[in-house]
Design brief:
alpha/beta, Glutaredoxin
Length: about 250
């Protein structure tokens, strides 16, 4: 019985700790951004640098400022960079999802060894139809490029909004940041509860705590039910023993 009571108390304590930890995370860490998603590689709100470049795929020159009014993803890449290759599907999905009137991708090849032919072959292999340019080093320097792939999301006012770099896991967050600037494309019934919203981010980041809490609740409930059964059983046994003693006592009196 003491062992059962100790187990029940331990389970209750663990459940309380689980929920209190979850609530602490909600209260204090809802604005945490993964380390490989960095809004301050360059301070958010810094103007995007204007430049003129030739689109390798069309041989047409353009100025970056001509894209004002759209959300722009600057994709720093190399044709031989494996993580860059793995990031292409996310860019393709975004290119399909968002209208060209609201959204633009500009891929910037920072590898001096990549020829225009290599870039064209890369684009053809992935059926890429957005702008692809070569960098002479100026853009990489301005955007403090540390690794590739790196994505800079530029808002409609040509201001830096977000930087994403590194792992494939971080790249999957690209769409959520674009939606913050283009909320009308959200498929959620209530656009106010979507990517970037603290409530949805909280549930997405802490679901495992609730599963653990639910499991512990079930365990505690099961233990309490079992304890109740044991108590009832013990009462029944004591009653039976008492009745048996009374029968023996009556027989001796006779």
């Amino acid at each position: 019985m003491k062992k059962s009571q100790s187990l029940i108390l331990f389970s209750i304590l663990l459940t309380i700790i689980t929920f209190s930890t979850t609530m602490t995370v909600f209260a204090e860490k809802t604005d945490i951004i993964p380390t490989n998603v960095n809004p301050n590689l360059i301070t958010r709100g810094t103007p995007a640098v204007d430049f003129t470049a030739k689109d390798v795929l069309t041989d047409i020159s353009f100025t970056f400022s001509s894209l004002a009014g759209k959300v722009i993803v600057l994709d720093f890449f190399s044709t031989t960079c494996i993580p860059c290759v793995h990031s292409v599907p996310e860019l393709l999905k975004a290119n399909i999802k968002y209208s060209s009137a609201d959204f633009e991708i500009v891929s910037v090849d920072v590898d001096s060894n990549d020829t225009e032919a290599a870039i064209e072959n890369f684009a053809e292999g992935w059926t890429i139809d957005w702008k692809m340019v070569r960098d002479n080093g100026d853009l990489a320097n301005y955007y403090q490029l540390l690794e590739i792939p790196t994505f800079y999301i530029i808002d409609q006012d040509m201001l830096i909004y977000q930087a994403i770099f590194g792992s494939e896991e971080a790249i999957k967050l690209l769409d959520s940041f674009i939606l913050e600037l283009l909320p009308s494309y959200s498929t959620a019934p209530n656009p106010t509860v979507g990517p970037g919203n603290p409530v949805s981010e909280f549930w997405a980041k802490n679901w495992y705590w609730f599963i653990l809490g639910g499991v512990m609740f079930i365990v505690v409930t099961g233990l309490l039910i079992q304890r109740r059964r044991i108590v009832i059983h013990n009462k029944k046994v004591r009653k039976q023993k008492q009745e048996a003693r009374q029968k023996r006592y009556r027989k001796r009196e006779r």
